[in-house]
Amino acid sequence: MSHWFYITPEEYELAAAIGVDSENLNRRVRLLGWNKQRALTTPLEKKTDRRHWAEIARQNGIGYYTFMTRVNQWGWDEERAATEQLQDRKATAANGTEKIRKIPAEIIRLTEQNGIAYHTMRARIRKGWDPREAATLPVASHSDAGKLGKAAVIAKYGDWNKFSFKEPKKVRA
């Protein structure tokens, strides 16, 4: 096997029988370094003529590379790749935004209608509020917040005045 790159006339005939011409056989053995057995038994890849569908794709506003990517990488058939319209970038971006949205758009609209700041609603939800309640309950005034705080302290500790207004110690006389 010292002359592995030498191709005999019989080997050329064997290759021609499966559709491999002499140029391709030479290229496979001498340039690409294939062994002779593989070069003789592997048929040429068939090229698909897609010019017709590529022209239809061009008429439909679809670029050649987009058409070929759809066919070769995404596995679409030629008809679908040539006729299905391109996606609108703005619609695609909006769709992506909707998919990753944590707070539903309906709640955000409700917040705006009720005059509540987005960040207030977001902070309320983060603190564990129900989203609908966070969007509809108006922001408390300072006096309302004080009253709520007083009620919470009384519920937790009882009479809160006992901490501030202690009775004076009785002095024995």
Features:
173 residues, mainly alpha, 3 domains, 12 helices, 61% helix, elongated
Set out the fold topology.
Elements: H1 9-17, H2 22-31, H3 36-41, H4 51-59, H5 64-72, H6 78-83, H7 89-100, H8 105-113, H9 118-126, H10 131-136, H11 142-157, H12 161-164
Report what the structure shows.
This protein is mainly α. The chain folds into three domains: 9-41, no CATH class; 50-86, no CATH class; 88-139, no CATH class. It has twelve helices and no strands. It has helices at 9-17, 22-31, 36-41, 51-59, 64-72, 78-83, 89-100, 105-113, 118-126, 131-136, 142-157, 161-164. The longest helix is centred in the C-terminal third of the chain and has 16 residues, at 142-157. The radius of gyration is 39 Å and the shape is elongated. The mean pLDDT is 89.
Number of helices: 12
Overall mean pLDDT stands at: 89
Rounded to an integer in angstroms, the radius of gyration calculated over CA atoms is 39 Å
Structural class: mainly alpha
Q: Report the major sheet.
A: none
* Number of strand segments: 0
Summary of the model, kept short:
This protein is mainly alpha-helical and 173 residues long.
